[in-house]
Amino acid sequence: MVRKLAVEVVDARDLVPKDGLGTSSAYAVADFDGQRKRTRTVPRDLNPQWHERLEFAVPDPPSMHAESLDVSLYHDRRFNPSGGGGGGGKNNFLGRVRIYGSQFSRRGEEGIVYFPLEKRSLLSWIRGEVGLKIYYYDEPAVPPPPEDRPPEGADNAPPPKVPPEEPKELPEVPEPTEAAVEVQQPHMQPPVIIVEEAPMHGPHGSMMPPPMHGPHGPMMPPMHGPHGPGPMMHGPHGPMMMHARMMPPQPEPEPEPEQPGPDGAEPYPPELRKTRMASSTEHVRIPRHPSGGFGPDYYTASPRVISGRFVSTGEAVEPVQSTYDLVEPMRYLFVRIVRVRGIRACEGPYVKIQAGPQCLRSRPGRDVSGTGSPEWNQVFAVSHAKPEPTLEISVWDGQAPSPADAFLGGVCFDLSDVPVRDQPDGPLAAQWYRLEGGEPGMVTGDIMVSVWIGTQADDVFPEAWNTDAPYAAYTRAKVYQSPKLWYLRASVIEAQDLRVPAPPPGLPFDVRVKVQLGFQSARTRRSVASSSGSAFAWAEDLMFVASEPLDNTLVLLVEDRSMIKEPALLGHATIPVSSVEQRLDERQIVASRWFNLEGGMGHGDGGGDQQGQPPGFYSGRLHLRLSLEGGYHVLDEAAHVCSDYRPTAKQLWKPPVGVLELGIVGACGLLPMKTKGGSKGSTDAYCVAKYGKKWVRTRTVTDSFNPRWNEQYTWQVYDPCTVLTVAVFDNWRMFAGAGDDRQDYRIGKVRVRVSTLESNRAYTASYPLLVLLRSGLKKMGEVQLAVRFSSPAHLPDTWATYTSPLLPRMHYLRPIGVAQQEALRGAAVRTVAAWLARSEPPLGPEVVRYMLDADAHTWSVRRAKANWFRIMGVLAWAVGLERWLDGVRRWRNPSPPHPPSSSTCCTSSSSGTRSWWCPRRRCTCS
Fold first, then answer.
1. Mind giving me the DSSP string for 155-210?
2. Which one of 295, 460, 633, 913 has the lowest number of neighbouring Cβ atoms within 10 Å?
3. 103 CB-contact burial (10 Å; exposed 0-12 / middle 13-18 / buried 19+)
4. pTM tops 0.90
5. Phi and psi of 734, rounded to 5°?
């Protein structure tokens, strides 16, 4: 398959004039992955239209999201009326846009998106926007051209003579190289490398010649021994001589004749011609460069050396940041059970794992291959906080009458020899081990297992059977994804050809349209009827929430509610949601359509002559305009604590501004949520975090008031003015039986605003878990979190992010009312809850509603009093000032907030003494 990227340049609007007469001759240039293509030039038009399609090849489809597409607009100077027709000057820049690979959509989901043109520099004068339609598709690779066929008249020709087949020459058999032959020879005793300190002899006694400096530091000149020069290396006490001695010595091979080069010169310098050792003690001479280092040919042919440094034992080494650097590493002993072979025939065999006091049991094995070898493919995680000396793995018969007959064999591991797997190492390969002990003195079969020690960062940890909780689907750690939500706008315009009976005297026509989408329903207002009574108009918009996959059906019902009794159905129609056109921009006009109504039931009480119609009977037609609005953000959270403000359409997304990392360390001081054994309190806590469309759930730690999760998760941040929500729940679904549904209890919730976090800094703190009960606000414990927001953005980009509108532009161009927005948010919450309830393990509707604050709109006396006190706290200074001014005006409180001294009651001037009545002292001051 070959992937293609199609860029359809539709038009541009409101460009900057560049030709001196108030117009521009614009053309577009698209650049993707080194491929550049351009459109034609539209002369003298500030709103040019191209409607041209440019195609690009995508060389690496998996990394397409990391690529970017640049579209630039230029003014063609050749179309200038005067003075610019020559080709000497540059074309004028009109603006550019950059679209990232994460905004590309698949063919069939594309739409016209208008991107505002950006400046190339700070002083550029740019305005306008360009409309693009970008999508990708996969097509099969072009097959090779077919072979040449004989002409049509060749059927009557005599068959060509076939020459006798000559014996085929055998392909040339390759010969092994000397290195390959040496590898295949029997292993000999490895060479012994002896490092000796070289004697320092000079012309005046024991002295060392001055070191020489090479390209990689100081080096010593070669010291000549009895057999020639030897390579030198520095030791802790000076230079040392290094030579290799082969044990035992081999006879000297015969030298091979040297082949001269093509120009008659020797192929190698004398120092390198002899590449084998003549004896066990002969040295290999390495030529030196005149500058003191090795020659340039040596560096060209030698492997690349990565620069580094040695650190002494007393110097601190900076640790390398791992994936789980915000939480504490927890050691686990991982055991992967694959399958068993060679055991006696039995039904329901299972594997038991024993490590000290901890014991785990697998599910019954299944003989998938039909060879009598049951398989499991399960991974167990045993807590290794207190290392045990041994690990026992045994196989048992699940249908045996007695425990003595159930034992089929086992194997024991010494945990001191178990390997440690560190990230990013790959999975450890499983091996076959003998099962012993099933029958005295006999081997009863083999088991394929792999055992290693790792941490919670291991990729198999989320799916492993953990000793922290008994195995159940409701105790595993999982990551969930919310469905993609759309706003469905149904504009009911008018209806025609309706067979509506005359209403009772004194009552007007009351025909309404009811639209249903799943559990959502909405009804229009009373219609405006025509004089004939067969045409009705509404011109009203109804909004619904639709989720992908768009497999629902929109049901339209036209009702006559003019009768006093039950409303009569005049006709209905069904429309698949997948057939509704998607709109990404308010300037994209969606065409309206007529839909035929069928199956009008009429009035069953004899109020008219229509007593019900057969299926498919034409009952009129309805004029609608349907569109899936991709320019809105479907709010499923309260606007002030929202975690994502991106529009639904992927083409309108902006690139992420950073990464948010959350480490859920644990909780402490949790209150008991259930009782076991009649009196013992217990809590089985797990944590749920939500940011954007991604939900995470930690594993359940059973029977602990201070659970430790130490799990870390990551989200991409598209807007820093968002909120991360973390809540703790008590697991009750793990005790639910078949067909029983128990709700998890809430323990508390914490919210963290991303805008309050300093970039590239980790915050670790304990947050109180508060729950509002009927008795009042109660603290249920504390949760320990570690949060870090990493952003590579610079200050201008961050400033632009904070100054941009919070919601997408469609919310401001065509706003949705407050009451309607709350109704749509309730529908979105219900849709998300139904979607996550179908996961495994399910995320209960009560958890989703609590995380999304579905009951935030309900009336609460405590919430009303708290809001009242907040308002009074803000306006307290204004109310106090107004009361003080009123007291001064009425002479009840003439003094300022800080009473003046008695000397300020009287003032004097050089011209005389002025006196007045002082109400505070009840006297006349002069």
1. GSSPPPPPPPPPPPPPPPPP---HHHHHHHSPP-PPPEEEEEEPP--BTTBS--PP
2. 913
3. buried
4. no
5. -70, -15
